[in-house]
Amino acid sequence: MSWNPFSRSSSSAPKKAVLSRTSQRDFEREVKRLDELEELTRRLYKDGKRLTEANNAVAKSERKLSQELLSTALCQTEEKFKWQINEWDSSMIRMDMHMTDRNVKLHRTVLEPLKKYVSIFPYAQVAVKKRDQCLQEFQKCQDKVSKYQERDRTGQNAVKLDMAKKTLGTAQADFTSQNDALMVDVPKMIDTRTDYFQPSLEADIKSEVQYTTEAVKVYGELSNLMNGHKQQSRHDYASLIQQALTELKALSITTD
Q1: Which of 101, 108, 119 is nearest to 199 (CA)?
Q2: What does the buried/exposed string (b/e) look like for 176-207 if buried means 16 or more CB atoms within 10 Å of the residue's CB?
Q3: Could you tell me which residues come within 8 angstroms of residue 70 by beta carbon, excluding any fewer than 6 positions away?
Q4: What does the alpha-carbon distance between residue 181 and residue 125 come to, in Å, rounded to a whole number?
Q5: Residue 60's closest CA among 99, 108, 4, 28?
Q6: DSSP 253
Q7: CB 32 within 8 A of CB 125
Q8: Is 147:202 a contact under the CB 8 Å cutoff?
Q9: Which end of the chain is more exposed for a tag (fewer CB within 10 A), N or C?
């Protein structure tokens, strides 16, 4: 806030505070919670964008591997190996499509709602600023009334006091309206955050499940093609890899 009528460091402390310290602390606590919610929402939005970028990078990187292998001389001379890499490349095309679908859903069900939610906070900040301005005006009017009350009760001072009291009444009504509205709306906005984010969370989990299911299907089919539809366990694959490594180490170019 730009001005705090309760600050101990104020060189011209008001003679009569228009708002209790407790009420001011309660308001500042709610504003702090609102600021924390805004910061969290903005971080979630940025992290969601980074996730879509990372998803795209993973899909493109794996496709790049198959493309580079297809351009090697080995794929031009070894038909079986070329066929395997072509099948892998085809699988990567399918996975790229599924990843694109995943990112589209992530954008629609998570990023767009978060962006809309973030757009609300500037309006809340304007309302808080207006409330602070009303509080300053309220305090200013109260100080003026106090000043005229301390003066001699001459006719001129009585007229000024009467006018100051009317202005004070208007300022008090404006502040009360702004303050009461914020003390209702800010906690309500904070308390309903879970209801707002819950559908996005559920949609994202379902999207991830769908993508993972398709990935298992694509890679399962590719695995079956690679080993001739033979059922092989993780141990079988490990044994095959170890056997290939042993044969490589036995070559003269790899011996010490």
Answers
A1: 108
A2: eebbeebeeebeebeeeeeeebeebeebbeeb
A3: 82, 85, 86, 89
A4: 13
A5: 99
A6: G
A7: no
A8: no
A9: C
Cβ contact 69:75 at 8 Å: yes
> How do the pLDDT tens digits run along the chain, 256 residues long?
444 544 434 444 446 789 999 999 999 999 999 999 999 999 999 999 999 999 999 988 988 998 998 888 888 888 888 898 999 999 999 999 999 999 999 999 999 999 999 999 999 999 999 999 999 999 999 999 988 888 767 778 888 888 999 999 999 999 999 999 999 999 999 999 999 999 999 999 999 999 999 999 998 888 888 876 455 565 665 676 677 677 766 765 555 5
Tokens of 215: 């990935």
CA 253 to chain centre: 54
Residue corresponding to tokens 């990023």: 111
Amino acid letter for position 203: A
Return the closest-CA partner of residue 183 out of 26, 43, 11, 71.
Answer: 26
